[in-house]
Specification:
Elements lengths: L2 E6 L5 H10 L3 E6 L14 E4 L25 E4 L1 H9 L3 E4 L5 E9 L12 E8 L1 E5 L5 E5 L7 E4 L4 E4 L11 H12 L8 H15 L5 E5 L3 H14 L3 E7 L7 H12 L3 E6 L1 H8 L5 H23 L4 E3 L4 H6 L25 E3 L7 H10 L4 H4 L19 H20 L8 E15 L2 E14 L7 E2 L4 H14 L3 E6 L13
Parallel strand pairs: 1-2, 1-3, 3-4, 4-11, 12-13, 12-15, 13-14, 15-16, 18-20
Antiparallel strand pairs: 5-8, 6-7, 6-9, 9-10, 10-11, 17-18, 18-19
Helix pairs in contact: 4-5, 4-10, 5-10, 7-8, 12-13
This protein binds xanthosine-5'-monophosphate.
């Protein structure tokens, strides 16, 4: 199978590069630069991409690689730091000058006769983020792109199939980034582009069948898209050695628990244990109003429940989780700063009674997880369900969580979802829900003063949940939802609509 190696030097876009390659139906694998020796590369890969990184090549702490890689005869594309590293390894010079920094959208002029830029106009916009630049080209290289400030925005030694770009072709702001990557894969590496999600499923099934043979495996099923896909994938690999545990923490949406049970037990014929743990979760959650503490408590309590179930079942060796790539970065990958501890990553307690945690979707983006679900034959209704976070309603109830508040929010949320469905708008936002704020406000009903809670409705459009925009829901739909909520749900005196994008906000409120 043709594969591209994404050699990671600590850049923030490593998985995004891999995903952009997969979009062209070529399999890409990300490996940290210190996890693969140069002699192992040529036999496995048809091309290599060096990622960006935060360092400067002359910094003693900066990541370097064996320059022998440039002599393997394999096509290489260096991006940003990867470009500078390639130039440095080949004997060029890198310089840092304050007035040569470029950040954001910059106009680039390319030499369209280079195979990397075939089919591109001479001028277009690219995304830059650098202080250092290639000041002296290595022997055999020539400049193939420039910007106003950067004398070498891209370089190549075409004979040796070595290419470097100072900008980021993987980012959508680079107008022709997709075409550049296609040129690298098909014109330069000679890939065929016949990989697809069915292959990913087949490889994963084969891998887990081998790795988990004879193991007793527990899967944490939330009923959401990610854990459902992870469960069905593992079920296909190891059948009845997989037991799914569905924890009803009392923070699910209206009627959700019963629906999940119906789908997995009856439709997929899986071994499923439903644990009703509402009291256990709520009694701990009622102690704190800090969002991070709430997430940690939920993560920890989940694992404790699994351990208890494991004890009843006898020793379970492996825990499967539906973690996906955006969860990993948002929980702080490497030096990236922590935005939120997603309960299935950062919230894990130190001591876990399992040999190992398996996360089969850890490298995939949401839309790739959906494609995997379809390739596994999971019904569309489930695959395209809007995501529901592991901590459930707890991160949509601001402040302390109580059963009363969870029941209230369940009703409000169900009305909002019903009204979107009635208007045929279920597919417009990627995610939509209600939030119960901790703020009460004065209202009037009949002739009496009321003092109920304020709820916020939230609906967002997004492709990958890394960034999101608020959805333009038609006013009449919002109006109907608002009327019904204040009329049908006790103790709500005000309904607001959240019009913040991500960033600066996040999708969930906590
Ligand atoms: P944020 O709030 O981080 O949400 O912008 C992005 C996406 O991630 C979901 N989300 C979570 N999913 N565990 C999960 O399984 C979590 O702790 C968690 N926090 C947020 C959120 O619903 C949205 O789809």
């Amino acid at each position: 199978m043709e594969k591209i190696l994404v050699l990671d030097f600590g850049g923030q876009y490593d998985q995004l590069i891999a995903r952009r390659v997969r979009e062209h139906h070529v399999f890409a694998e990300v490996l940290p630069y210190d996890k693969i020796a140069v002699d192992e590369i040529a036999s496995q890969y048809c091309g290599v991409i060096f990622t960006g990184g935060p360092n400067s090549v002359y910094d003693p702490a900066s990541p370097h690689y064996d320059p022998k890689i440039l002599t393997l005869g394999l096509p290489i594309l260096g991006i940003c730091y990867g470009d500078q590293l390639m130039a440095y390894m080949a004997g060029g010079e890198i310089r840092s000058a304050e007035n040569s920094s470029e950040f954001g959208k910059i106009e680039v002029t390319v030499n369209a006769s280079s195979p990397l830029f075939a089919g591109l106009p001479e001028k277009s916009v690219c995304w830059m983020s650098h202080n250092d630049f290639v000041a002296e080209l290595p022997k055999g290289f020539s400049t193939i792109a420039t910007t106003e400030k950067c004398p070498c925005a891209a370089m190549s030694d075409e004979g040796r199939r070595l290419f470097g770009v100072q900008f980021h072709p993987e980012v959508t702001h680079t107008e022709y980034g997709k075409q550049m990557l296609a040129n690298f894969l098909f014109r330069i590496c000679g890939c065929k582009g016949d990989w697809n999600m069915e292959d990913f499923v087949a490889q994963s099934v084969e891998k887990y069948r081998r790795e988990l043979a004879g193991k007793r495996v527990l899967c944490a099923l939330s009923g959401g898209v990610d854990s459902s896909v992870a469960a069905v994938l593992l079920h296909r690999a190891i059948g009845d050695n997989l037991t799914c545990v569905f924890v009803d923490h009392g923070l699910l949406r209206k009627n959700e628990g019963d629906m999940v049970e119906e789908i997995f037990r009856r439709q997929f014929n899986m071994k499923l244990i439903r644990v009703n743990a509402e009291e256990r979760f709520l009694s701990r959650l009622s102690q704190t109003s800090d969002p991070e503490t709430k997430r940690k408590i939920i993560g920890e309590e989940f694992i404790r429940v699994f351990e208890d179930v494991g004890k009843e079942l006898g020793k379970m060796d492996i825990l499967v989780q539906g973690t996906i790539y955006p969860d990993v970065i948002e929980s702080g990958k490497g030096d990236a700063s922590t935005i939120k501890s997603h309960h299935n990553v950062g919230g894990l307690p130190d001591v876990i009674d399992f040999e190992r945690i398996v996360e089969p979707l850890r490298d995939l983006f949401k839309d790739e997880v959906r494609a995997t679900g379809l390739a596994l034959g999971i019904p569309k209704e489930l695959v395209f369900r809007q995501p529901f976070p592991g901590p459930g309603l707890a991160i949509r109830i601001i402040g302390k969580v109580t059963k009363d508040k969870a029941d209230t929010l369940r009703e409000v949320d169900a009305i909002f979802r019903e009204e979107l469905a009635n208007a045929g708008l279920e597919q417009l936002p990627a995610q939509y829900f209600a939030v119960l704020t901790d703020t009460r406000s004065v209202g009037v009903m009949g002739d009496a003063r009321t003092y109920g809670y304020t709820v916020a409705l939230r609906a967002v459009t997004t492709d990958d949940f890394m960034t999101a925009d608020w959805a333009r829901i038609p006013y009449p739909v919002l109006e109907r939802a608002s009327n019904r909520i204040t009329n049908e749900v006790r103790n709500i005196s005000r309904v607001t609509y959240d019009i913040t994008s991500k960033p600066p906000a996040t999708v969930e409120w906590e």
